[in-house]
Amino acid sequence: EAGVAQSPRYKIIEKRQSVAFWCNPISGHATLYWYQQILGQGPKLLIQFQNNGVVDDSQLPKDRFSAERLKGVDSTLKIQPAKLEDSAVYLCASSLGGAGNTIYFGEGSWLTVV
Amino acid sequence: QKEVEQNSGPLSVPEGAIASLNCTYSDRGSQSFFWYRQYSGKSPELIMSIYSNGDKEDGRFTAQLNKASQYVSLLIRDSQPSDSATYLCAVNIARPKTGANNLFFGTGTRLTVIP
Predict the structure, then answer these.
(1) Omega into A25 within 30° of 0, i.e. cis?
(2) Cα B72 to chain center, whole Å?
(3) SS3 of B66, please?
């Protein structure tokens, strides 16, 4: 079974530039998550989708971050304009859905803002 | 109080010893608990899940849950150098504003197994 796919794996941008990350979840997984993991910290949930609807985006900095999941499958996370403190790994994850379901992570997209 | 708290370590144990990793959580209503292992530069991978009070064993790993004390732990028996990684405790917590169940992670405990 294919895992969660993410791209690009690595990205270096200057502050105030924009960047977009793409995620393809495990086939059949209704729930998709974007997490931000800053070095030395645990993953922090940015946004959770159930099919193509947003379940929770309360921790997403909406002035600069946006995410969409068109057609309930792939998702993109965009940052515009980027700040130095956005340097982190952006982890996409998916699950079948519902509390208690196992969440599977992609390899992550490493962002460095200089 | 943070939703999920762990000692950041580092925790060092000799090869063959038992490594004990601990985690506390804030939401008394939480029902699902997970331990993830994260190697340096890699994404988290699930190693154990536990939903009921008591112990759950899987090979060299044992997860222990005490809901009354809001405490979950992971024991690694016969520790191997390949177990050296950061171990993340994760707890499903219902967010008051949205009602959604989100997985909250601790900061992780870095474990080093010394050959």
Answers:
(1) no
(2) 7
(3) strand
Token pair in block for residue B58: 């899987």
Indicate yes or no: CB of A48 within 8 angstroms of CB of B45: no
Element (H, E) at A97: none
Instruction: Say what the pLDDT of residue B98 is.
Output: 64
CB distance A43–B105 less than 8 Å? yes
Contact state of B100 with A106 under an 8 Å Cβ cutoff: no
The answer for A 23-52 residues in CB contact with B (under 8 A) is 33, 40-45, 48
> How many distinct helices (H) and strands (E) make up chain B?
0, 11
State CA A78 to chain mean position distance.
Answer: 9
A106 min Cα distance to partner chain B (Å):
7
Q: Is the dihedral of CA B82, A1, A32, B71 positive or negative?
A: negative
**Residue type (1 letter), B84:** S
A28-86 pLDDT, tens per residue?
999 999 999 999 899 999 999 998 899 889 899 999 999 999 888 999 999 999 999 99
| Structure token digits, residue A53 | 């609807």
